[in-house]
Amino acid sequence: MCIRDSPWKLTDDIAIWTQNWSWVPVPERGEVSSVNSVCNLCPGGCGITVRKVGDRCTKIEGRHGYPVNNGSICILGESGLQLLYGPWRIPSPLRRAGKRGEGIWEKISWEDAITQVVQKLRALRQKGESHKVACISGSNSGTVSQLFARFLKAYGSPNFVQMASGRDTEELAMGLMHGTASPVAYDLEHASFILSFGSGLIEGWGSPVRVIKAHSIWRTRNLKERATVVQIEPRLSRTAAKADNWYPVRPGTEAALALGLAHVIVKESLYEHRFIDNYTFGFEDWTDSSGGNHIGFKRLVLTKYAPEAVSQVTGLPPRKIIDLARKFAKAKRPLATWGRGKGSRQGSLYECMAVHALNALVGNINREGGICPQPEVSTRTWPEVEQDEIARSGFGMPRLDGAGTDRYLHVKYLPERLPQAINEQQAGAVQALLVHEANPYYTMLDSTAVAEAFERIPFVVSFSTYLDETAQHADIILPNHHCLERWEDFHTPIGLQKPILALLKPVVPPQFDTRHAGDVIINIAKRLGGSVAKAFPWKDYETLLKWTMGDKWNTLEKRGFVQEANYKPPAWEEAFKTSSGKFEFYVKALERQGASQPQDIRCLPHYKPVELEGDHANYPLTLIPAESIRLANGAIGNPPFCTKALPDTVLKGNDLFVEINPKTASNYGLSEGDSIILETPKARAKVLVHLFEGIMPEVIAIPSGLGHTAYDEFLAHKGVNANKLMGVVEDPVSGLSATWGARARIIKV
């Protein structure tokens, strides 16, 4: 067989292999049509066109002309029909009939299922324990997530929690430094120098298709305008391999490098003087109203972050640090990005602030090719919830995760703290848990602690579309429609700099006896009666959605989206809503929050190592997650098409490979394909060795997104769940999870 024929042979092999699946959709002959909608399988929010034959969907393509992806689509979005028609769909309401996790279910009617949920919630409320109900939502925007938050407020619980994301840390950093608490929007398409601190730009970071298309733009410009891409991370990812330069640094030292670059930029006066002199606070030393002297960002980086000192921390030679700083600062439109991998983990606030300080130094804020607070298309505001006495009392109780308290003053949710809080409180901290569009049993760090927390919760209700790990450990499942079967709004996708409001449309009628989660939570509220019911004056979810969209509804229904294409971020004079009215290097808002470090250091972006669990003597290696666009590692399980696309150096049969540098492997007497036990302070797992020159010595990379125990034979029990091996390391200021890896050791089998 010729080399040029091999792709077609591979395609033929895949086609033959797929015929072994009993559930391959084979549509009958019929009229061919197409429907436009939006994919919500990841935060990317791509426009899609679904091809149909009769009432059967046969293909998903990227929607041409859609502002986010303009005709392109990622492998997960393209595989969406396997999630629609696959065997892991939950066909009807279910009640657990065996032990949790055994998979023994009893099919019940919607009437019975909702009645049981209402009876449980009513009983807790009557006992004055409304605050012992919690909700975990996977979405961080849109009306459905807001409905669940509204329900808890009307019911009387403060414990509404959203799943962790890098957006949480970005939003906090923007709120502190800009005074505008919103995620970061990156004008990638117009940047001329992209300095990526571990962001997997072609591995699913941000809105994946949009970022990959931006990467193509950087590469296809003429030589004079061609963008430079520099990747900083300890592993040669695909992004690093396709970058102009890859700078491997010791994992966890990215903030130190950012501040080392700042040192050079400040020392050589390469910063944007007009912005720094007129629109920033805390760059220079300053004196407060009581005469107290405070160190400024300039003196901090000049005294503590010289290239020689930073080199000792990061492992990067001083000359490379100096050269990189000069090239970044002298570029026409330099842009620094933050968020390792896909940006799905929260990460260190100091690291995020240090990287963002680089964007401020070069003045590339609210400018073309720079960053700005992410804007949103406005919609109608819902009426305030009028709480009764029970709701006021319960809602006023302390949050279980501690968010919003004096210790964690500036954060809204601390999801990774929730299992710990449940496990530490013996008096039944959570009596009922509602889970919507999330799979915390799989995606949360320290899976053992999460499993223990679930065992302590007497009543768990899942609104999942799929029989995922969390649904498997629920007591009642109220299955949601698939995203191709329902109405829903989708707000500006992650990282996008132009505000957009999009509409998911029902492409096909519901395939099973499922219901829209929005309708179900409204129904539950109405059955509880009183002030809870009054908080939901809408007949059903579709009525609520149309009312909320207001005068935008007709355009949304007809066109599928509304975009403010001419939006421009405000000028520097009007951009910052901090107490100083300027961009704050010295963050005044942090003065009020208690922390272990001195006040001056606490209020400036700096490097404070995130100490992982375990001691170096017993765990001499460092384990880091490796993310791939071929592996869904969030609430959605990997469809078979995606799993089939994995190389056999990642997954072979059911066995997972980890990447190890040959020098490290030699120290342990390991060869390619050897079996080892990989152990961390949290767990151990049997894996195979893949020798990889592109990873730093003493560092091991484990693929993230495998190791499921749920779904079906095409996904369950393949590989290892990386989250099981990693514990929660708390950020010293925010309380968010700053975990970026785990200490580890190897036991040869």
Give the N-to-C terminal Cα separation. Answer: 39 Å
Instruction: Note the beta-strand portion.
Output: 15-25%
Structural class: alpha/beta
Low-confidence stretches: 1-6
Gyration radius over CA: 26 Å
Approximate helicity band: 25-40%
Q: Walk across the major sheet and give the strand order.
A: 5-4-19-18-17-6-7
Q: What summary fits the major beta sheet?
A: 7 strands, mixed
Overall outline: globular
Mean pLDDT: 94
Verbal overview:
The chain has 749 residues and is of the alpha/beta class. It is 31% helix and 18% strand. The strands form 8 sheets. The protein has a 7-stranded mixed sheet with strand order 5-4-19-18-17-6-7, covered by helices on one side. It is globular and about 70 Å long. Mean pLDDT is 94; it is low at 1-6.
Quick structural summary:
With 749 residues, the chain is of the alpha/beta class. It is built from 27 helices and 30 strands.
